[in-house]
Specification:
Elements: E1 6-9, H1 16-22, E2 30-36, E3 39-50, H2 55-68, E4 72-77, H3 81-89, E5 95-98, H4 104-114, E6 119-134, E7 142-144, H5 145-152, H6 162-167, E8 179-183, H7 188-200, E9 219-221, H8 223-233, E10 237-242, H9 243-248, E11 252-253, E12 255-257, E13 262-263, H10 267-275, E14 278-279, E15 288-289, E16 301-309, H11 318-328, H12 331-335, H13 347-358
Parallel strand pairs: 3-4, 3-5, 7-12, 8-9, 8-10
Antiparallel strand pairs: 1-4, 2-3, 5-16, 6-10, 6-11, 6-16, 12-13, 14-15
């Protein structure tokens, strides 16, 4: 399907007996006669917004759910993690997608909005944050952590800088100025990328981590699509983005060396880092702690959380929200991810995700 900035897939009304056979009546909200991935279909309409990194994953999930369950309409807008959280706090959406868990200040507001129970972070999709670049004649590139920090802190400004050359013997690097792009919007991808820099390259990165870009220099681009488009159209550029977007744009991506040798970004190499993450949340909140200093897996990763009320959400939205998240955390839902450049949630963490989703109620 065609993917635009707004992921909007409208359920196709099915006629007569076919509609009844597939998912039953679509009048009102509630359970229907059909099933998807072994669970009852739900009718109704919900809106959600947030993470642009998960946009391609959400598009696949929404398409599959609405195709399987007539009478369901799900509108996900990839506005960025920060905007998505604010939409959720302001009661404009059923859930928010965010590439980092709720911060304390936002958590207090989200809990207050939910009223009957806490807001919970549910990890649903993982990804590699890659350094996509556009440098003519450079087909392979290795970037150590301190070099990545130098490029995005604007202290390494040309492609033939000695620090880049030392990590890439035999590669002819141009004497061109580096055009480094960062996210201009409030972004969970930025939060994870700057956490990586702060942990893996502390001596070269002296800025705070967070959703808002803090370092000087560089150029801003909005959303994951905007970052991919900026690199595609700008010679000698580099930007950070989720792997799926670099793959869709057919961009070259750098390998990253955290001190144990260069590691190529992929779903598999990122999966080992995400699998080693530890749960720091309590109860059904599954916010994670990631080791960005690892030398055995691809180190620059993100996990996108679906943030919703454990209890006390809008009663009209809860059945479809719960049904969609039950589907996305099912074997079928998670099975769609690797082929489109994402990392599935697996093992004990997936079991905990399913328990968290099952606890959602009005």
């Amino acid at each position: 399907m065609s993917i635009s900035r707004t992921v909007r897939v409208v359920a196709i009304a099915m006629l007569g007996g076919l509609a009844l056979a597939a998912c039953g009546s679509d009048s009102g909200s509630g359970s229907t006669g059909g099933t998807i991935a072994g669970q009852p279909c739900q009718t109704g309409s919900i809106k959600a917004s947030g993470s642009s990194a998960q946009k391609n994953a959400m598009a696949a999930w929404v398409n599959a759910y609405q195709t399987g369950c007539a009478g369901a309409t799900i509108d996900y807008q990839a506005t960025g993690s920060g905007a998505g959280i604010q939409d959720f706090i302001n009661k404009q959406t059923a859930f928010a997608g965010s590439d980092s868990p709720l911060k304390d200040a936002d958590r207090a507001k989200a809990d207050a909005m939910c009223a009957a129970g806490p807001a919970i972070d549910i990890p649903m999709v993982g990804g590699a944050i890659v350094l996509a670049y556009n440098v003519s004649g450079v087909d392979t590139l290795v970037l150590p952590a301190n070099v990545i920090a130098g490029i995005f802190a604007n202290t390494i400004t040309t492609w033939n800088d000695p620090a880049i050359a030392a990590a890439n013997p035999g590669v002819t690097l141009p004497a061109a100025t580096i055009a480094a792009f960062h996210r201009s919007d409030s972004s969970g991808t930025t939060d994870n990328f700057t956490k990586y820099l702060k942990n893996a390259a502390a001596s070269a990165w002296t800025y705070d981590s967070g959703k808002e870009w803090a370092a000087p220099g560089g150029q801003g681009a909005k959303g994951s699509d905007g970052m991919a488009n900026a690199v595609t159209s700008t010679a000698n550029s580099i930007a950070y983005m989720e792997l799926s977007f670099a793959q869709n744009a057919k961009l070259a991506v750098a390998s990253v060396d955290n001190g144990g040798g260069a590691i190529v970004p992929s779903s598999d190499t990122a999966a080992s880092t995400i699998a080693a993450a530890t749960v720091k949340g309590t109860g059904n909140d599954l916010s994670l702690s990631i080791d960005y200093t690892t030398t055995t897996g691809y180190p620059i990763v993100l996990v996108t959380y679906e943030i919703t009320c454990e209890k006390g959400g809008d009663a009209a939205n809860v059945p479809l929200t719960k049904a969609l998240l039950t589907y996305t955390s099912s074997d079928e839902g998670q099975g769609k991810l690797a082929a489109i450049g994402y990392v599935p949630i697996t093992g004990d963490l997936l079991t905990k995700v399913r328990t968290s989703v099952s606890a959602i109620s009005s």
